[in-house]
Amino acid sequence: MSKPSDATLVIIPTYNELENLPLITSRVREANPEVDVLIVDDNSPDGTGDAADSLAEQDDHIFVLHREGKGGLCGAYMAGFRWGLERDYQVLCEMDADGSHAPEQLHLLLEQIDDGADLVIGSRYIPGGEVVNWPKQRWLLSKGGNLYISLALGGGIKDMTAGYRAFRRQVLEYLDLDALSNAGYIFQVEVAFRVIQADFDVREVPITFTEREIGESKLDGSFVKDSLAEVTKWGVQHRAEQAQHFVQVVGGLAKHEIARFRKKWMI
């Protein structure tokens, strides 16, 4: 009997990842020989795109999507999602090119998809999850940011900024990909938030996140300023909507009880 994970696409965005790309693709293919890999390259000046083409020529499970310029992580994933949705993939995954997401743990996400989950997030901040080789300051920034996001938006997810994810195609078909925010890395939060609001089955599995050993991180200080500002705006709107819904429910109950009272006493 076939499973959703039998038709899985792993999307790996790249920008100047020449040294990391052959390492991560070989690990993906060794640990998960049945999945396909889509490399989305943003015209890397170091030749990553050419290296991706060479890998694709040698392995019919590897594909390449070239973009004209450095359009950001959100744009790369959106392009990758559209590419996958145009084909018959039932599960589409996000994975970093730098080795921070262990391909050897991908099965943990896919097992939950096969168990009925709609979105599975590889989490650093649930029991069993961990971060390796991060400076204390960066860990505190990430941990504190996720705590703030959880308090602002609710939903019960501990690692809303995590980028190791597996989606059922129906989730991505539901989302308006063109409307997602591209402020910092906030699109990861927005996607999870929108999916939770739509009552999809969202789960977390523990992963080990390992800081890159080759190259430089693309994350900068704009994440804090831009991303948390967006979260605050969504949080205020979300709480207002909750309050409005509460008032509507209470008002409806009150009208119902008044009608019952009048009918009982023939008022």
Automatic annotation (TrEMBL):
<dbReference type="InterPro" id="IPR039528">
    <property type="entry name" value="DPM1-like"/>
</dbReference>
<keyword id="KW-0328">Glycosyltransferase</keyword>
<protein>
    <recommendedName>
        <fullName>dolichyl-phosphate beta-D-mannosyltransferase</fullName>
        <ecNumber>2.4.1.83</ecNumber>
    </recommendedName>
</protein>
<dbReference type="InterPro" id="IPR029044">
    <property type="entry name" value="Nucleotide-diphossugar_trans"/>
</dbReference>
<dbReference type="GO" id="GO:0004582">
    <property type="term" value="F:dolichyl-phosphate beta-D-mannosyltransferase activity"/>
</dbReference>
<dbReference type="GO" id="GO:0016020">
    <property type="term" value="C:membrane"/>
</dbReference>
<dbReference type="Pfam" id="PF00535">
    <property type="entry name" value="Glycos_transf_2"/>
</dbReference>
<dbReference type="InterPro" id="IPR001173">
    <property type="entry name" value="Glyco_trans_2-like"/>
</dbReference>
<dbReference type="GO" id="GO:0009247">
    <property type="term" value="P:glycolipid biosynthetic process"/>
</dbReference>
<keyword id="KW-0808">Transferase</keyword>
<comment type="similarity">
    <text>Belongs to the glycosyltransferase 2 family.</text>
</comment>
<feature type="domain" description="Glycosyltransferase 2-like">
    <location>
        <begin position="10"/>
        <end position="173"/>
    </location>
</feature>
